[in-house]
Design brief:
Helices cover 22% and strands 35% of the residues. It is α+β, with helices and mostly antiparallel strands. A six-stranded mixed β-sheet has the order 3-2-1-6-5-4, with helices on both faces.
Length: 101
């Protein structure tokens, strides 16, 4: 697995390795210009967690994601006070991978 010092470095490194889609969280899906994908339609292949040393707003998790079609992209989500609301199914999918790293 790769190691990155910042969120920006992780995003840039993943993009250089073909993770070109920009995913956003929906209520029970991830969304990008290619469509919406339920938790069953994608896999998280890598996770990078960043903790803000001085500002909790800098806390983020970068997910490398591949959907069932083989499209790859990046999802950046805050945690703690800046986390997004999501369904229990989506939270479970993301937390399984976060807790294993």
């Amino acid at each position: 697995m790769y190691s990155y010092e910042t969120v920006t470095a992780a995003i840039n490194g993943l993009k250089q390795r073909g993770y070109n889609l920009d995913f956003n969280l929906g209520e029970n899906c991830i969304v990008c210009h290619a469509g919406k994908f339920s938790p069953a339609e994608f896999e998280i292949t890598e996770v990078y967690r960043f903790e803000g040393n001085t500002d909790p707003a800098d806390e983020a998790i970068v997910y490398a994601i591949e959907n069932k079609k083989g499209d790859k992209g990046v999802l950046v989500n805050g945690y703690g006070p800046s986390s997004n609301e999501m369904s229990a199914e989506m939270a479970k999918k993301l937390s399984i991978h976060t807790n294993n790293n």
